[in-house]
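Researcher: Can you fold this with CU-O-CU linkage in place?
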Amino acid sequence: MTRTLFLLVLLAAASPLAAQRYELVAAPGLWRIAAEKSLPGFAYGGRFPGPVLEAREGIPLEIVFRNHLSEPTVVHWHGLRIPAAMDGTEMSQSPVQSGGSFTYAFTPPDAGTFWYHPHTNESRQIERGLVGTVVVRGASDPVVDAEQLLVFDDVSVSGQDFGRFGTPVQRWNGREGKVLLINGRADTQLAMSANQVERWRILNASNARYLRLALGGQTFRLIATDGGLIERPIALTEVLLTPGDRVDLAVGPFEEGTVINIESLAYDRGVGKGEAARYGSVRVGAPRPSVARLPEVLRSIPPLAEADAKPTRMVTLDGRISLLRAVDWTINGKGNPHDAPVKVGELQVWDIVNESKIDHPFHLHGFFFQVLSQNGVPSTMRSWEDVVNVPAKSRVRIAWMPDDRPGMWMYHCHIVEHQGAGMMAHFEVVR
Ligand code: C2O
Ligand code: CU
């Protein structure tokens, strides 16, 4: 025992903990969403979506960011539990001006599927394509036969350009587009081998569109959410991803010749029919041997609080009609409020109350929470999340623990048009 420990310490000391370095440029670029359709987009690293930044749990990461856009931007590292100064918001740094640069340096503490996106002029910058993923690998990742990363998005198109930005309807509902994309392309055709089990890392990077993901009725297994692995795989035929959400699925094994639709089932978030839609398909090719092993227990997640723990704070989401701006979205009755500080080490139990008639995906920066209950009904699954849907006229209770990372943090609705219309708060974590 002691000897193993000693060896491990030795190994850790010997292994180079050198930072993994990336250079990331944001610049205008032509976004080819389909064979005959290109849009004047904004790209990270010249790609739509931007490059996958590969990282390892506990290994420092350094990203030299350069802004070649003609407007200011900042890069937010969504879901990563890193120091406040690296969070990449207008609260934590001054925006990177056109032609400027900023070096983000931090050590990802958790394995999982994360993403990066601007935290300035979000509705336009994210819609135009500034979206990328961070895959953090960990020691206890299950063995699978292959892995795919699927970034779901939608764009509103008019001719060879984006549809109008900033309309009153978008301020109400969020900006939804009719062109549905996986990894930046309409009608994506994926391939996998029969007999194999793949890990699909999935992100909903849409501004506002909900994704009630289904694979033509096939069963898949949920293995991870925003903050990494859940406790045990859960067999499902559909899973709901709000904007900003991630899930990892174990997909397969399927039989050769099967063609499976990748689709979104109808979901009514309070803004109209929310019709079913098809994003693409996956074709199952010739069988290959499988080495995948999905353990029954993926990890254990200790509960932060009882389901009926007393709330320490109320966060009320609502909206009100505005003559000038159609609608203003509010938190505790105000647009962009400054909320009370929280103390390092003091358990937070927050009731997120949605008084409005439409759903809002609540996102907390820099910390994971557990969902304790919805409308008083205890959660059946324990997981670490940074986004949770708060359905219209409902109440979601969450618990989170501020660890020792003082500074300014934010929470907001991840329908980015709502975020831009007031439904975003900041608060300080203090020692
Ligand atoms: Cu993806 Cu402030 O969030
Ligand atoms: Cu909202």
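Model: Folded with CU-O-CU linkage in place. The pocket of CU-O-CU linkage (ligand 1) is lined by residues 76, 78, 117, 119, 244, 363, 365, 410, 412, 414 (CB under 6 Å).
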